[in-house]
Structures are given as structure tokens and as C-alpha cells.
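Q: Okay, next protein. This is FadR family transcriptional regulator from Bradyrhizobium archetypum. I've checked the sequence twice, so it should be correct. Can you predict the 3D structure?
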Amino acid sequence: MTSRLVVIPTRRAHSNHAEVARSIGVDIIAGRYAEGVRLPGDAELTAMFGVSRPVLRESVKTLVAKGLLTTKARVGTVVRERGAWNMFDADVLAWHLDAGIDRRFLNDLAEIRLAVEPRAAALAASRRSEADIAELNRSMERMRREASDSVGFADGDLALHLAVANASGNLFMRSIGNVIEAALRASFLLSAPVETQDRETVLLWHQRIVDAIASGDAEAATAAMTEVIHNGLRRHEDVSPSSGAAAAAVESGEQS
């Protein structure tokens, strides 16, 4: 089973079938039901969760739709390979936080960010409005005001990146940002720049993103965003479950 950096609890579901789907989904992601393994039968699962067969079947249908399970005649319900999971599904992302995010999750998140965010920054440099620039500046002000290992700092960081996506004017980039918002927030909490020098580096490069977008310099905006993502990825390498950042992430999740 993969080593988990930290568990970040999310909100509980509001219906029986959604809660059963969440519980099974978390177990799959955490590796308690491995890829290719058949789930227990209906009788065992209904007894385990204290629900009716229709509720269980609705839960399984939800997990099939999200790519975590498949149903096979004369075989039963089987866990699908990780590559089939819909990582742009908000529930699947939330269940990863419940299960405990690992380095693979953080690396995969950084790679999709590198594929999207630098281009979003370049587009923002050519399409930004005065309102967009004002929002970027407000986010920077919050980051400067908050302690580096605080939830407020991570929220300011998140707000800045979402503001860049919004300023890009591209609906798909906006949607990607909104979908992975919870994962980004967890990532920012875990890579919080605790040391003074790290904090200054983080603030410097985020300010360069804002300045480049405000001045319409697409090339500089691309370079600054790329450096920010790589810098965060480097800090992830130093994260352990006992770190202050991890503790802040857990505290934040409990408040969700």
C-alpha cells in the first residue's frame, strides 16, 4: 500500500447512497480494495452499511460512473485500475483527501498544473481586465498578511491561482481550476514555506506572476507560473506527516 503523507477529511455525504459510495470509494483509493479485486457480495455489503439493496446498487452505479468499479456477469463488482478513475470528478478528488494523499498524487497534480497554468497565465496577460488585476493584488496582499503555515496563506495562494484561471478568459481553464480547487488547497497547505527565505521566494515569484499579467508580458507570466509550480513541488519533497504544514492541512480539513 502506498505511503500516505496526510489525511485531510472532507465533508460527509448527505444521503445514504452517497455516503456508502464515499466509504467504498475511500477504501478503494486507500488500497483496502486493490485493483482487480472483487467486492464482497450484496448481502455482506448491505449488512456492513446497514442499507437496503436498492441503496447499495445506487452506490455501485455511482462508483461505476466515476470509473472506480466495473460490473461483470458471473463475476461480480470489480475494482478498476487506477488509470480508469475520473480524476476530474470532485468526489473522487475529495475521496483522495479522505484516504490520504501521497507523493504520486502530488506529482500528478503538479504535472497537470504545468500543462495548464503557465498557458493560463500567458492568456491572462493578454486578456486581463482591471477587475482581474485588482483580484490578483488582493490575493497577494492576503498572502503577505498571513503566516506562511496558516490556512489563510494557502487560501490566498489558491485565490491567486483561481484568479489567473479566471483572467485567462478560457472556460475550460476556469472549470479545471474549480474542479481541482480542494486538491490545490491541500497541495498549498502541504508545501507551505515555513522558513523565512522560502517565504520570501514564494512571495517574490507570485508577485512576478501578478506583475507580468498586469503589464501584459505573456512570456514572463509563463516563466513565473512555471517556477512557482516547480518550487512548490520541491517543497513537497520535504513534507512529512508530522510537519507543521501537514498538521495545518488536517486542521483545515476538520473545519470543512
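A: Here is a summary of the prediction. DSSP finds twelve helices and two strands in the chain. The radius of gyration is 20 Å.
Q: Noted. On to the next one.
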